[in-house]
Design a protein that fits this description.
Strand content of chain B: over 45%
Structural class of chain A: mainly beta
Oligomer: heterodimer
Radius of gyration of chain A: 14 Å
Largest interface: A-B, 24 and 25 residues
Number of strands of chain A: 10
Number of strands of chain B: 11
Distance between the termini of chain B: 40 Å
Largest sheet of chain A: 6 strands, mixed
Distance between the termini of chain A: 37 Å
Shape of chain B: globular
Structural class of chain B: mainly beta
Number of helices of chain B: 0
Helix content of chain B: under 10%
Number of helices of chain A: 0
Order of helices and strands of chain B: EEEEEEEEEEE
Shape of chain A: globular
Order of helices and strands of chain A: EEEEEEEEEE
């Protein structure tokens, strides 16, 4: 079966522009995560969706970042008025979960964002 | 805050054994993941430890000591393809099920 897919794979944009990053999770996975990975850094948690519950937005670094998940499946991460420090790899992951702690996360290939 | 420490980089020789350590200081703990990430690729699951002790899975083993806040990933019979970053992640930190990741250890295997 298909894994987690993300698009675009690469995105180059100018400072101040808005960007949208897309994630298609594995079918049937109710949990979806967005992470950011800067060069030489670990995965920085951004936002978490679980079923129909309100998302956990505690990791979003500023109000320029937002995300939505439509129909419990596809998710879009939007960065408004991009800054150079937003340049990073944005990773999406999904998992089956009933709210437990040991579900394996399946990661997508990431979107490499470069803000000029 | 939550703190997860791993060495930044390690090097080892093909065929050898290497141990990658991870220490954590977190308010709350459920379990610890190890993921492998090749350059330019997505992280992939290696192991998840909840109980103390060693879990072996082929050439890879993972150890956990909850009382010491310590884990290690042991890689045996190293192969060139094992060159990758190895990410340690804790669940339950701060009472959250969302995994908190360390910065990862870049392992370089040379002939």
């Amino acid at each position: 079966g298909a894994g987690v897919s993300q698009s675009p794979s690469n995105k180059v944009t100018e400072k101040g522009k808005d960007v949208e990053l897309r994630c298609d999770p594995i079918s049937g996975h109710t949990a979806l995560y967005w992470y950011r990975q800067s060069l030489g850094q670990g995965l920085e948690f951004l936002i978490y969706f679980q079923g129909n519950s309100a998302p956990d937005k505690s990791g979003l670094p500023s109000d320029r970042f937002s995300a939505e998940r439509t129909g419990g499946s596809v998710s879009t991460l939007t960065i408004q008025r991009t800054q150079q420090e937003d340049s990073a790899v944005y990773l999406c992951a999904s998992s089956t979960t009933s709210g437990g702690a040991g579900e394996t996360q399946y990661f997508g290939p990431g979107t490499r964002l470069l803000v000029l | 805050g939550q703190n997860i420490d791993q060495p930044t980089e390690m090097t080892a020789t093909e065929g050898a054994i290497v141990q990658i350590n991870c220490t954590y200081q977190t308010s709350g703990f459920n379990g610890l993941f190890w993921y492998q990430q090749h350059a330019g690729e997505a992280p992939t699951f290696l192991s998840y430890n909840v109980l103390d002790g060693l879990e072996e899975k082929g050439r890879f083993s993972s150890f956990l000591s909850r009382s010491k806040g310590y884990s290690y990933l042991l890689l045996k019979e190293l192969q060139m393809k094992d060159s990758a970053s190895y990410l340690c992640a804790v669940t339950g930190a701060g009472g959250s099920y969302i995994p908190t990741f360390g910065r990862g250890t870049s392992l370089i295997v040379h002939p």
